[in-house]
């Protein structure tokens, strides 16, 4: 149960949120349906999608490093 509140669990959750929202932003029908609102929980998804598309190199490198850490380092 201690793994739920760890920093690496929070980082994995944040990276998955950013990657998922950036992927959903690339799908035209989902973009207008889910990511058009900029307030509330959908606003958080919209901001995560913007971060994922603008910093795609940094986000992908972070995902690779986190995957290596989770699979090998832990």
TrEMBL record:
Pfam families: DUF1242. It is found in: Golgi apparatus membrane. One of its GO terms (cellular component) is Golgi membrane. The chain crosses the membrane at residues 48-72. Its main location: Golgi. It is a single-pass type I membrane protein. Keywords: Golgi apparatus, Membrane, Signal, Transmembrane, Transmembrane helix. It comes from the Eukaryota. The keyword Transmembrane applies. Involved in the early part of the secretory pathway. Belongs to the KISH family. This is Protein kish. It comes from Zonotrichia albicollis (White-throated sparrow).
């Amino acid at each position: 149960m201690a793994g739920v509140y760890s920093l690496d669990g929070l980082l994995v959750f944040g990276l998955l949120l950013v990657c998922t929202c950036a992927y959903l932003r690339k799908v035209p029908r989902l973009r207008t349906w889910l990511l058009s609102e900029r307030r509330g929980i959908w606003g958080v998804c919209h901001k995560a999608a913007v971060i994922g598309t603008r910093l795609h190199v940094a986000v992908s490198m972070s995902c690779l490093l986190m995957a290596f850490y989770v699979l090998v380092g832990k």
